[in-house]
């Protein structure tokens, strides 16, 4: 081609911009959350946004306010200030049972399964289709997801190992078919092999489109699963960002997470 006719360096259709990514629906929005136990204030203006289908973490050392944030979202500890909106509805003044019926499910720290009920009874007691899905979590589907629970279907809750109890606690939450699944200390106290099974479980749930908020200390594993992270320090948001940003700044890990 001659010098008078150089090769074009612009797109063939400059008037056609690439399509913008579809906006993510905001499922949970926490603004300026303040919570106290009696005269002792624990949270000082926590902000948190979770989009539908995202996995988000709350990180921080013990005693920094992570569980209190979860308890405030769930209505278990009433917020003193700020607001919490879930699927467009203000929930910061609602009772915990009402928030649960709206489609928020908690896998609590310590699991808190019923020791005097069988595995099957623990699961079916919570069966509901709160998100109105056409393919809900059922007993059979939970058993397929956690084959160990199927094997121990008739065992009492207090006859399970710690890992099996955690699987049961997750399965019980899934049986409600929640819009938002919250896991407080997802792998605390579990053997390494069982932890790996829980990580695989969370990755599979993310792949299915389940929205998840998770508290855990294994940052290197959370980075592989989560979209966004919020670090809490003494009841305040110290940092928020993506997995890529957190992975690129290990100084944050040492400064706020003690690893």
Shape: globular
CATH topology of the largest domain: Rossmann fold
Relative strand content: 15-25%
Element string (H = helix, E = strand): EEEHEEHEHHHHEHEHEEHH
Low-pLDDT sequence parts: 1-12
Instruction: Look at the structure and name the CATH superfamily of the largest domain.
Output: P-loop containing nucleotide triphosphate hydrolases
Under the CATH scheme, the architecture of the largest domain is 3-Layer(aba) Sandwich
Distance between the termini: 60 Å
Helix content: 25-40%
Question: Mind telling me the C-alpha Rg?
Answer: 21 Å
The number of distinct structural domains comes to 2
Q: How does this structure look, described?
A:
The protein has 259 residues and is α/β, with parallel strands linked by helices. It has helices spanning 66-74, 96-101, 119-124, 139-145, 147-151, 162-174, 192-207, 219-225, 243-248, 250-257; strands at residues 26-37, 40-51, 55-59, 81-86, 89-90, 104-107, 180-183, 211-215, 228-233, 236-242. The chain has a six-stranded mixed beta sheet, with helices on both faces.
């Amino acid at each position: 081609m001659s010098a008078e006719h150089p090769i074009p360096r612009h797109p063939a259709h400059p008037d056609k911009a690439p399509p913008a990514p579809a906006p993510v629906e905001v499922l949970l929005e926490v603004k300026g959350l303040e919570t106290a136990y009696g005269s002792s204030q624990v949270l000082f203006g926590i902000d948190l946004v979770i989009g539908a289908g995202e996995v988000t973490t709350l990180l921080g050392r013990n005693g920094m306010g992570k569980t209190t944030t979860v308890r405030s979202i769930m209505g278990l500890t009433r917020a003193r200030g700020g607001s919490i909106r879930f699927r467009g509805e203000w929930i910061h003044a609602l009772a915990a049972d009402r928030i649960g019926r709206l489609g928020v499910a908690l896998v609590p720290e310590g699991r808190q399964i019923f020791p005097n009920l069988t595995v099957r009874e623990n699961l079916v007691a919570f069966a509901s289709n709160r998100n109105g899905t056409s393919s809900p979590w059922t007993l059979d589907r939970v058993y397929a997801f956690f084959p160990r629970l199927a094997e121990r279907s008739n065992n009492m809750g207090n006859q399970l190992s710690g890992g099996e109890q955690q699987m049961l606690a997750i399965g019980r939450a899934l049986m409600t078919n929640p819009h938002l699944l919250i896991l407080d200390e997802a792998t605390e106290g579990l053997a390494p092999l069982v932890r790996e099974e829980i990580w695989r479980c969370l990755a599979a749930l993310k792949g299915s489109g389940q929205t998840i908020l998770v508290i855990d200390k294994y940052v290197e594993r959370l980075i592989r699963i989560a979209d966004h992270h919020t670090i809490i320090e003494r009841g305040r948001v110290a940092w928020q960002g993506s997995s890529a940003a957190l992975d690129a700044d290990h100084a944050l890990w040492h400064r706020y997470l003690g690893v």
